[in-house]
Give the backbone structure.
Amino acid sequence: MRVDIFTLFPAMFPAYLNESILKRAQEMGLLSVHIHNIRQYTTDKHRVTDEPPYGGGGGMVLKPEPIFAAVESVLANVPTDKRPPVILLTPQGRPFTQKVARELARHDWIMLLCGRYEGIDERVREHLVTDEISIGDYVLTGGELAALVVIDAVTRLLPGALGAEDAAETDSYASGLLEGPHYTRPANFRGWEVPAVLRSGHAARIQAWRRQQALRRTWQRRPELLLTANLTEEDRWFLRVLAEEHLRKHTADEEAASNSPL
Ligand code: 6GU
């Protein structure tokens, strides 16, 4: 997959891209990243990229000309039907999820445009951008971290990017549940023991225990994920056990409260 990034801060990218899985994916030829400095596409003496908004108000707005020039310099000679999605990273975009990552991973070329300051001239949105993505409901200084988040999540999905060991891990995500706990040596750390089942060598019991831990954690922390998760009959049985456990505990709490002198 080819990724072109358009940014005013190109130096923000190499540190993250040149380590770990993203580094390896590039070495393997699965990923190639081209970073473009929007400022280099200005044509005025002072290389101005932003100006105050029409109509007044605070802040600065990114000018359209250098952004169009930068993107169009890469798209020149690319037939319309071969053009990649041009994705603006902005808090107003559609929410980025694992599903959106899977969707983007099907493309062999994407472009990521990093917004900055208070905003970007609306004509960029209307006539250049084909998609808008936000990585969550909080405000970042610019789209650069969001672009790295998108590249990371998408690269992990490219066939061959993960070692065989990590690949299984992706499967548990495909199920739509949170992962349960992990343990490694030592078996006893400061008196805190690794659960015996994990050291039992009984593969089927370990698998069942891990699944139950994932279900329990999802139930406790992100119950809404259970509505869309891929669940077996066995999973549903265990969730009823959790629900009964929860009810029992709650009923006991209420009884204790009603008997309390306070
Ligand atoms: Cl994509 N950009 C900015 N500036 N802030 C964000 C974001 C993007 N996603 C969440 N917050």
